[in-house]
Structure formats: C-alpha cells, structure tokens
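Here is the promised in-class demo. Please do not try to memorize the tokens; focus on the logic of going from shape to residues.
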C-alpha cells in the first residue's frame, strides 16, 4: 500500500437501501489541488464512488448537507489520492479541518469522536509499520546485524502493543476499532478476533462494512471449529518429515520429551525475529526434557539450512519436505500463518498452540518449576 491511509475496502456494490441518512459536514481544507471535495466510499486502488460533492472557496471553506445511502464508513476525499475516514450515521454533524497534502496525518475532527479515534489509530499503525518495514529492509541488507536489530526494535514492538491494548479499552464497542481487525489473525488468535468483531457489531450493526465483517467472521469461525481438534489435552497428530540427510523423523520419535513443534521458514521475518527467544528457552530447559521440532515451510533447501546455521538453532530436530505452504505437516495442522507453534507434553498430548516469547517461557516454568 503506497498511501498512508487505512483502506476500508467494500467488496460488494451497494444494493438499494430504503432508508437514507442525512448528514452535515463542514470545515476548512487547505493545500488542495482541487476546487472541490467529496464524500465518497473507497474500494481500493484508485477506485472511489462519490456521493456528495461541494466546492472549496478561496480560503478552503466548504459545507456538505445531503443524504447518503446508509450509515457506514465513508471518506472525505480531498485530492486524487488523499482521503480521511469518517464514520457517518443518521444526523451526523461534523467539522473537519486539515491539510489536503497529507490529511491523514494533519487533521482535526469535531463532532465525531469515533471518527477521530479511528484515524488516530490509523496514524499510529502507519508509523509503526513504517518502522517495522525499515527494520526488515535493513536486516535483509545486513543479515549479520540481526541481534542488534532485534534489540533496537523490541521496545518499539512492546510500545505499540501497549498502545493497542489501551486503545481497545478506551474505544469499547465502537466502530473506531475497525482498523484493529487488520492486525488480528482470526485463526491463531480467534478469541481476540471474535471479541473485536462482536464489539464492532455492538457499535455499528447494520452498516454494510460491518455486515461483510460478520459474513467473514462466520467463515473464520468455521475454520476455527476445525482447529478444535488441536485443543489442549487432545493427542497431537503424528507425522513424519525428512531431515536434511533425507532420514525421516516422526513426532512420536520424541515421545518422553516436552516438544515445541515450531512451523517457520527462512523467508519469514517474524519467525527469524522470534528464533533468538526459542534458542534461549531451549538452552534453559533442554537438560530437563524439552526440545524443539522445527518444521520449515521452505522450498529452497540451502536457504533453509543456512537460516538454521545463521540463527544458531541448536536442537537436532530440523525437518522439511520442501513443499513450502503445501508442507504435509503444515496441512495436517491447518497452519494458516507462521510462526505457528504447538507445545506437546511427554505423552504426546497438546498443551497449547501458538505459544511464543514470554507466554511460552511461563508455560514451561509451570511444567519444569523454574
């Protein structure tokens, strides 16, 4: 995405709605390269559908008064590729002031706190993602600097996570939570995803964008229910994968140890950033009966083995059938994204899925007592 904006993309064209909403929007927009602005909906790329249009006077003042098809998330479109998200309901009276050259970063919204909060989150998300992308590019160019990059980026990660938690509390049951959906994996973090969807429904039920979220939620719930076979206490499905020398290693070969099945790949940035934590935890508990079974979703054998060496993955259990996303074990375990982990006890039963970092270490502390 080139533009710094949260894109709410509607996949379906509006049907005919019997009840329209009336809105009033005014304010001042400066630095515009147009003599008019519009209230529109955004469909991705350069695709907009304009509903209301009004002129900007010489000072940048404007006023909209009119009807829209239905309550929903719209955009104030100020330049060809600049817009600001607005949550519009029946009777909305809003003032928007901003710089058309970068309205998402420089704006003030009066009369719609939920719109202001939505755009606040977007700005913070964009800043964080820009820093993350910069760190990833630097790491790709300087792979020997991985530890330094991890150390410098970790505080930013936790700062952003704290911002998200506070934002969720401060904006409970509000459509301002919409952009958080793009950052929650519905498969790996279904409970958080379900809670978020329910709060958005509570705050904006009936809006077309929310109706689409509900439809997608039902599909994701179906996929989640399939994953219940991997609930704690169930026997982890056995599988066999070739090691680098071609010999097969079965999960059941490791029975008697607490095993972290770790689905990863050399090309997966989050996986590589998590690897130092896994190494540290392995070193702490290896002598007490803990091991790791790393299942690589690589296609290139050399890239896989080079990453194992470079990241100093000390355990001997490295396997891959080199089928990438079609990896047989990944298919068996319904892996939709990586890193993905399954912690298995000494009897081969699932303790928990998708444990990483502090959560993984705390779980192992409860098992081993330190």
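The designed amino acids, position by position:
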């Amino acid at each position: 995405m080139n533009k710094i904006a949260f894109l709410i993309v509607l996949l379906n064209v509006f049907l005919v709605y019997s009840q329209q909403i009336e809105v009033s929007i005014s304010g001042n927009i400066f630095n515009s390269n147009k003599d008019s602005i519009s209230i529109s909906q955004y469909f991705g790329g350069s695709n907009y559908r304009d509903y209301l249009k009004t002129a900007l006077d010489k000072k940048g003042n404007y006023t909209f008064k009119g009807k829209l098809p239905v309550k929903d998330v719209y955009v104030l479109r100020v330049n060809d590729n600049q817009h600001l998200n607005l949550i519009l309901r029946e009777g909305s009276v809003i003032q928007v002031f901003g710089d058309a050259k970068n309205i998402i970063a420089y704006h003030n919204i009066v009369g719609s706190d939920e719109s202001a909060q939505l755009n606040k989150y977007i700005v913070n998300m964009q800043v964080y993602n820009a820093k993350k992308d910069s760190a990833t590019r630097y790491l790709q160019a300087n792979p020997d600097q991985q530890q330094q990059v991890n150390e410098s980026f970790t505080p930013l990660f936790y700062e952003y996570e704290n911002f998200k938690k506070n934002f969720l509390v401060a904006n409970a049951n509000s459509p301002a939570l919409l952009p958080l959906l793009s950052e929650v994996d519905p498969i790996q973090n279904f409970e958080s995803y379900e809670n978020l969807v329910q709060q958005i429904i509570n705050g904006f039920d009936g809006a077309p964008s929310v109706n689409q979220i509900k439809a997608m939620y039902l599909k994701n719930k179906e996929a989640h229910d399939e994953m219940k076979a991997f609930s704690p206490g169930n026997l982890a499905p056995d599988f066999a994968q070739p090691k680098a020398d071609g010999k097969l290693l079965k999960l059941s070969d490791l029975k008697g140890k607490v095993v972290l099945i770790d689905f990863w790949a050399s090309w997966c940035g989050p996986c590589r950033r998590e690897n130092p934590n896994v190494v540290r935890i392995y070193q702490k508990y290896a002598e007490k009966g803990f091991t790791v079974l790393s299942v690589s979703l690589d296609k290139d054998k050399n890239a896989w083995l080079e990453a194992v060496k470079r990241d100093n993955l000390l355990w001997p259990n490295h396997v891959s059938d080199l089928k990438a996303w079609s990896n047989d074990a990944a298919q068996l375990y319904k892996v939709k994204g990586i890193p993905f982990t399954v912690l298995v006890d000494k009897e081969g039963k699932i303790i928990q899925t998708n444990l990483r970092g502090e959560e993984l270490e705390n779980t192992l502390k409860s098992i081993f007592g330190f």
